[in-house]
Amino acid sequence: MCAVVYAVGSLASPELSTLNESHALVSFPFGLALGAVLIFGYRIWPAFVLGSLVRSFLTGTAWPVAAAAALLEPGSALLTAYALRRVHGPGSLISRAKSISLLAGLAAGLASGVMAALDEAIRFVVAGPLQRPLPYEILSTWAANAMGVLIITPLLLAFAEPSHVQRKRWIVEATVLMATLLLSVQILFGEWTGLGTERYALAYLPFPLLFWAAFRFGSRGGTLATLMIALLAIWGTAQRIGPFTGTTATEGLIQLWFFLTITSATSLIITSTVSERRSAESKLRRAHSLLEERVEERTVELTRAYADLQEKARILDQIHDSVISTDRNGLIISWNGGAQRMFGFSEEEALGRHVSIILPATMSEALQDDLRRGLRENGNHELETELKRNTGDVFEAHLSLTLLRDVKGRASAVFGIVMDIHERVRAEERLRNSERMYQQILDAIVDMVLVRGPDTRVVWANRAFREFYHMNNNELRNLAPSALGDAALEDDIRVFRTGCTLSIPEDSMANHKDEEGLFHTVKSAIFDSEGRVVMTVGVSRDIMDLKRAQEERERYVHELEESRDRVQRQAELLSEQAVELKNARDAALEGTKAKSEFLAIMSHEIRTPMNGVIGMTGLLLSTPMSDKQSDYAQTIRRSAESLLTIINDILDFSKIEAGRLNLEDIDFSLPESVDDVLDLFEDRAKTKGVRIRRKVSKQVPDFVRGDAGRLRQVLVNLTGNALKFTERGTVDVRVSLQSQSASDYLIRFEIEDTGIGIDEEAQQRLFHSFSQADSSTTRKYGGTGLGLSISKQLCSLMGGEIGVRSTPGQGSVFWFTVCLRHCEPGAHLNQGAADPMASIGDGFADGARILVVEDNPVNQKLALALLKRFGCHADMANNGLEAVDAYVSLPYDVILMDCQMPEMDGYEATRRIREISGDGPRIPIVAMTANAMQGDRERCLDAGMDDYLTKPIRFEELKSTMYAWLSALRAEVV
User: Fold this and answer.
1) CB 355 within 8 A of CB 326
2) Distance of alpha carbon 529 from alpha carbon 596, whole angstroms
């Protein structure tokens, strides 16, 4: 944009050259370039070079002249602007008379003249001889450039500065002014109103308007009016109109230049005067505004300072320490809340009173004089002394006093801060006591302890160290750092430098009496709060005896190694013997396994016919019979149950021997369990004429947690034995609490009878397996001899023991203890619930379809008869294959499954049925088996069965099981 304006201005300048054919009267390019560089800076200079080249191209100027003009004209403006800024400095060039003089003198006078001389000289060299003499050409060029500087440059500078005139107020006035100015100039230089040379003085008629523009609109108005007057004057004169068309062209040109010079100078002088006045007014307004702002700021600062002062006063009242001020006579003039809390005097009570109200009577005059002297000499003083409260109590305090002086330097008041250091003094005393205690502890240690300071000198050593070196603490502190050995000093220096712990396994030391010792020394660093090493501590333990013991131990080790070789040879022999023993043990285990398997098989084989005997006897007893027939049937049933008891004893013994007996963990009522056992023997005791008595101590808890069944088994065994061997008299069952802990009870049971008694020799083997007092007892009373052995092992499993006291012919006392745990909270609430089976009738399963899988004909017959009593419709399958086919053919409600059968056992049949049913309804399968060994129940459940019954089948057990599963099925249907 600047290049285009420069080119257009260069082309327009020759149009105003009628009076001076070779040069323009006003050089627009030079004034424009100078103003632009002063406004925008030196970076705009290349644009004017480009504009000059464009001007030369459009006018057809030869390239040497065009190149010289492109460098000379913008270059002259650039150098002139640089000179102005160097001389004038920053700021406006048209705001002051001094600045305008500099612009006129340096730019219009000197720089324009130099540029004109150079321009014409270059033209002479490049283009050849000039049309007119060289001085005339230089003068013409200088005049045109000077006019450009005085007219164009101020105009650009004026419009580049911010305007302070309100536009709404001067639009109309400016319009009127410009119109009037145009009219007056048109009258002077217009074609239709030309006045001729005889009216030369009238050329200055527009000057009042020029003054008006400058005064009202500042530099912009003055420079713009000057430009309008100059353009119209040049245009009119060029057209041979106006007062400057004298007798000769040169005379008219000089008059015009003089007119333009007077016009621009007048405009610039008025502009600078107005600018200075307005600048002074602006500065005055700014100073006034600044003064008001500073007054306002000072008022705010004073308000804030007053608020801060109040806040500080409030803070002083809140701080724990006392802040007190007194005048030069010792009268209290300020008393904060901390002083009120510390001394007990309120502010009203303290103000105006002498400071002696807080000084104890024991404070000496010497101390008070020392205090006054310290304040006078130093202006402040600190000390620790005792002060008193309003109650008269004395406490330790720290005083920090400062002497306050007035503007003349005279002492006017004393400002003091009092801190209650009563607790600190007590803490320091406790700290000193602790230090003494720790020193005594370290003195009591047999190891030597040495502490060195930063200068590696000894700071402290314990008694063991002092006694070894035969020195006291003062002597050790005065020792040179290397007095205890260069090696020890180097070790301490290393710890100081690195801060690492140093361990010396064998450190030889000797005192001045040539007494030597061998020590294990550990040296460590002691750090301050910033992590710097401030001391080292070395602990040395006498290892001389340990060294001798180590040597002795090495000798013993050598002997032990020799002994080890001998033992190793013996171990090889023992290893061979161990192999033989392992083979023997494996054989024994195989025997035990075979015995267990034999017992399991025998149990199954015996329980199967026993199921038929007991079941059929029960069915027989439920039919109408004569008394004699009923007696015979009862005898058969009791015999079968006795045989079943023997079988159960054998099974329990087998389980315990194999370690496969697990105890239950349930909550139960201990007194009720004892009553249940005694109820079993009530009829037998009445028949024999023996009285059974029960006594339960009040300390025995009502509810406990453990295995109620196994506890009843032991109690039944011992009570049954007591009743068996007692022909007359009594059997007493006593229960007591032997001890208890936070979680357990130790319960003691005693069963005392008046029977035949047992001699001491028989008591020794009484609790062994398959053992009784003598063979005659077996023949007379019967039994396997396993009951007491099983009871002993059950008591051991329940955390107790068993024993006997007996005298032949007078009776026996069998006792045992068991460990039972505390009952869970609320467990006893369910103990009294009614038996849900009590209300079940025999027709509860009417219409139910049952599949019985059983290979034994007797058990088949028994199962069908029992199920018929329940109202069931039962089908029979002889093995697992038939059971699977029956399940596929007909829908059943429940399947009773035997486990051991030919062709397919019950486990495989259950798995097949579960595979066939898939995700469909699950039919209940209840195991009904003679397998009653440990793990048989889990095996049935793992195969997919839902419940488990052991043979011989009890009527009530079968009844409750069938009721449970049929009730669940009916609930699902509903």
Assistant:
1) yes
2) 76
- Is the Cβ–Cβ distance between 850 and 867 less than 8 Å? yes
Among candidates 772, 767, 783, which has minimal Cα distance to 656? 767
142 contacts 114 by C-beta, under 8 angstroms: no
What is the mean predicted confidence (pLDDT) over 697-722? 89
The answer to whether the bond into 952 is cis (omega within 30° of 0) is yes
Structure confidence at residue 321 (pLDDT): 79
For 280-301, the pLDDT digits (tens) are 677 777 777 888 788 788 777 7
DSSP H or E run through 267: helix 249-318
Is residue 459 packed enough to be buried (19+ CB in 10 Å), middle (13-18) or exposed (0-12)?
middle
Which of the pair, 109 or 800, is modelled with greater confidence?
A: 800
Is residue 254 pLDDT above 60, yes or no?
yes
The region, left, alpha or beta by phi > 0 then psi within -120 to 50, assigned to residue 12 is: alpha
Separation between Cα atoms, residue 932 and residue 945, nearest integer Å: 16
pLDDT tens, residue by residue, 842-853: 667 777 899 999
- Tell which residue, 156, 153, 155, has the closest CA to residue 145: 153
Strand partners, 331: 354
How far apart CA 104 and CA 31 sit, in angstroms, is 12
Closest-CA residue to 213 (of 258, 165, 168, 261): 165
Tens-place pLDDT, residues 923-952:
999 998 866 666 778 889 898 999 988 877
DSSP state for residue 922 in the 8-state scheme: P
Query: 91: closest CA among 41, 38, 43?
Result: 38
Q: Which residues pair with 734 in a beta bridge?
A: 695, 750
Rounded-to-integer distance, Cα 251 and Cα 936, Å: 148
How do strand 894-897 and strand 925-929 relate by DSSP bridges? parallel
Ordered alpha helix ranges (H), 798-945: 857-870, 880-889, 906-917, 936-942
